[in-house]
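Reviewers of the previous submission asked for a worked example of the structure-prediction workflow described in the proposal, so we include one complete record here. The input consisted solely of the amino acid sequence. No template or homolog information was supplied to the procedure at any stage.
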Amino acid sequence: MNGELADEYLDFVNFKSEILEIKQDIKIARKAIKEGIQLNAISNITGIDEGSLSILKKKYC
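From that input alone, the workflow returned the following structure tokens.
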């Protein structure tokens, strides 16, 4: 049982790390959109697809 709990905890830690990385990418994308940087350049930097970036652009600009 302890091994299962450890595995679940490690999965949670990895998940939390991924979520924090995504949040950081979104913050970078929002700032870049406000600065007028092209969506394809932002996509290359953050890894966020251009369709999602266009949604951010509509919402925040």
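The chain has three helices and no strands. We consider this example representative of the routine output the project will generate in years two and three.
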